[in-house]
Amino acid sequence: MKVDRTVLDKIAHLSRLEFDEKDAEKMMADMSAIVSWVEQLNEVDTEGVEPLTTMTHEVNNLRKDEVTPHLAHDKALLNAPKKDSDYFRVPKVLE
Fold first, then answer.
1. What is the model's pLDDT at position 66?
2. Taking the CB of residue 46, how many other CB atoms lie within 10 A of it?
3. Helix 5-14 vs helix 21-39: angle between axes, to the nearest 10 degrees?
C-alpha cells in the first residue's frame, strides 16, 4: 500500500498534525515504508500458533476481598488544608 497525500491529510487531521510540502513528502515515504514492513507480517506462517492475551505467564496474586471498617469523617479530614464540618473544600474548577 502506498500512502498518498489524501491518506496523509486524513491521518494528519485525525492526529491534529500539520506538514509543509517538504515534510509531507518525507512523511508519505516513511509511512509507506512502515506499511509495507507491516504487510510483510502477512507472509509469516502462523498456523497452529495460539494468540497471546498477555506477554507473560505470571499470575497476579490478589488478596481476598474483606469487609473492613471505613475511615471516619473526622479522621479523614484531619490533614485537609481546607474543610468544613463534613467535606473537603477545594477551589472551584467549573464556571
1. 92
2. 9
3. 100
Neighbours of 7 (CB within 10 A): 15
Determine the Cα–Cα distance for residues 32 and 50; give it in Å rounded to an integer. 30
CB-CB neighbours of 43 under 10 Å: 6
Prediction pTM value:
0.47
User: 38 and 49 in contact (C-beta within 8 Å)?
Assistant: no
Q: Where are the domains of the chain?
A: 5-43
Question: What is the grid cell recorded at 80?
Answer: 485537609
Quick one: 27 exposed, middle or buried, by C-beta within 10 A (0-12, 13-18, 19+)? middle
Write out pLDDT tens, residues 38-88: 999 889 998 998 888 888 888 888 999 999 999 888 888 888 888 887 888
Sign of the alpha-carbon torsion through 67, 72, 76, 78: negative
